Amino acid sequence: MSPILESITNGAQVGALLPLATAVVQRPAWPARIKQVVAVVIALVAAVATVAATGGWGQFEHGKLTLATVLAVLAASQTTYDLVWKPTKLAPAIEDATTPKGAQRAG
Predict the structure, then answer these.
(1) pTM of the entire structure?
(2) What angle do CA 24, 28, 33 make, to 5 degrees?
(3) Which terminal residue of the chain, N or C, has fewer Cβ atoms less than 10 Å from its own Cβ?
């Protein structure tokens, strides 16, 4: 497999499951804009970790591979959230389950 394709594949795999991990941090009462910012920041952190895990810290010297991984994580996380995790209500259920008692859902 080519290095670029491997980077995209690894990023997509991480990104596909990332919304479930993000839902642990998110709170139902947060405004949509805050949720978006948190999701993107977590995706960027996960992308950096994915690059480091797949190619070591030296991997960051290869701009195309790093960019491919970052974009794949971002794209996969946003897409799978919108197409899979949100419609199945799994991500919102995780948000509700991990929200401290007394916190209210956004209107």
Answers:
(1) 0.83
(2) 95
(3) C
The three-state DSSP-derived secondary structure of 35-52 is HHHHHHHHHHHHHHHHHH
The reply to whether 66 falls in a domain is yes
Q: What digits encode the pLDDT tens for the residues 24-50? A: 999 999 999 999 999 999 999 999 999
Dist CA 42 CA 87 (whole Å): 21
Are 73 and 43 in contact by the 8 Å Cβ rule? The answer is: yes
Q: Would you say residue 107 lies in a domain?
A: no
Domain count for the chain: 1
- Report the phi/psi class of residue 30: left, alpha or beta, with left for phi > 0 and alpha for psi in -120 to 50: beta
Q: Does residue 105 lie in a domain region?
A: no
- Exposure string of 40-55, with b = 16+ CB inside 10 Å and e = fewer, is eebbeebbbebbeebb
Give the gyration radius of the chain's Cα atoms.
15
User: Which DSSP category does 59 fall into?
Assistant: G
Structure tokens given for 32: 């949509």
